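Quick review question:
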């Protein structure tokens, strides 16, 4: 238990230090009262305005902020899991953003073009996004396994290929709403009502089915990695590919499976965004959730449950960031907190050295003076 606690504490301390540093930034540029008030507004925007609710406010002052936090947390969780799964096999997936783009487009096309009942339409659209994201990630895996191309280089390049392909051509060209007509629009057609993720609280919140789906996926990934043979082999490949190969583990297969799964998770994030809130593929997805997944994964210690906690925390902060503008503080401060936390997590060895128990050197035993031999009396 002590070892597990020491593994978690660096991330906790990094987040707390990032919060403190950003508070100091606001206090130096404004004043301490404004900094404290901005933080309180951020918490109310992400966790609900509890003081107003206790004063007789409507329940919506709690459900709406919590719903926005859950929506953002679901996207951060899925992209964070994408990076985590690739990490487990020894690969650094920088391409979650591109995989999310192609997955979102696939979900939008399936949601708009297919005519199915909701019980089938939603799974088919999500599956289409997972397949598209997985296939996009497998391009990098194939380059890695066949030609030795480093996955960081290939996934970064594939991100920009996806942006050019999806945002700069398909969504404004052949797949745009009203293609072939005089309509000047960007983005795909709206998805059918049967493909929309149902809202769990109706009009009281935008919270939809994507949030529990993301939590269930995180739990499934944890079970797979910790309880199943294929998950054990995946972790073994990440710890040492040559040793795993000598032990009879199919290194190539496990590497390809892990990278394909990582892409599928990022594609699922795109599906959750399109089917849950956007209801179409817009001209661009806005926030770079794929890149944010790298920070979420590292802060979560590359553990599925840690990634879930990290996503929930930063989802709440980012949902409440807009309320900081009420006090003249820019809404991007949650992203600054996230970036600083990642920077501090990078100094993990410093935290571990501070947390390592100190061993007290044993004191040398005091040497007793030797007794002088007795002189026999005459």
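Suggested answer, residue by residue:
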């Amino acid at each position: 238990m002590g070892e597990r606690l020491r593994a978690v504490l660096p991330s906790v301390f990094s987040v707390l230090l990032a919060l403190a540093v950003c508070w100091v930034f606001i206090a130096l540029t404004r004043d301490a009262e404004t900094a404290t008030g901005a933080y309180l507004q951020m918490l109310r925007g992400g966790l609900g305005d509890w003081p107003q609710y206790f004063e007789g406010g409507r329940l919506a002052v709690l459900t709406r902020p919590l719903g926005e936090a859950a929506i953002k947390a679901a996207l951060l969780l899925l992209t964070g899991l994408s990076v985590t799964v690739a990490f487990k096999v020894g690969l650094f997936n920088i391409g979650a953003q591109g995989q999310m783009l192609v997955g979102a487009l696939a979900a939008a096309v399936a949601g708009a073009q297919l005519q199915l009942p909701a019980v089938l339409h939603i799974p088919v659209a999500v599956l289409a996004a997972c397949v598209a994201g997985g296939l996009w990630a497998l391009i990098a895996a194939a380059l890695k396994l066949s030609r030795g191309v480093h996955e960081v280089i290939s996934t970064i390049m594939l991100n920009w290929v996806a942006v050019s392909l999806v945002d700069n051509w398909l969504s404004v060209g052949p797949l745009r709403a009203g293609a072939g007509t005089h309509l000047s629009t960007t983005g795909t057609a709206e998805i059918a009502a049967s493909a929309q993720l149902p809202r769990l609280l109706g009009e009281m919140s935008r919270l939809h089915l994507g949030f529990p789906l993301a939590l269930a996926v995180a739990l499934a990934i944890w079970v797979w990695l910790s309880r199943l043979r294929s998950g054990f082999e995946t972790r073994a490949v990440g710890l040492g590919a040559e040793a795993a190969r000598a032990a009879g583990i199919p290194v190539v297969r496990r590497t390809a499976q892990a990278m394909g799964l990582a892409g599928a998770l990022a594609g699922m994030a795109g599906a959750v965004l399109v089917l849950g809130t956007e209801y179409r593929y817009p001209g661009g997805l806005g926030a770079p959730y794929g890149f944010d997944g790298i920070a979420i994964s590292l802060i979560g210690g590359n553990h599925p449950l840690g990634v879930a906690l990290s996503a929930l925390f930063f989802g709440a902060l980012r949902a409440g960031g807009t309320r900081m503008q009420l006090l003249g503080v820019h809404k991007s401060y949650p992203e600054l907190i996230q970036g600083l936390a990642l920077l501090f997590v990078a100094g993990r060895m410093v935290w571990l050295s501070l947390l390592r128990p100190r061993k007290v050197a044993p004191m040398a035993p005091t040497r007793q003076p030797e007794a002088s031999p007795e002189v026999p009396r005459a």
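Why it works: The chain has a mean pLDDT of 88. The CA atoms of residues 83 and 307 lie 10 Å apart.
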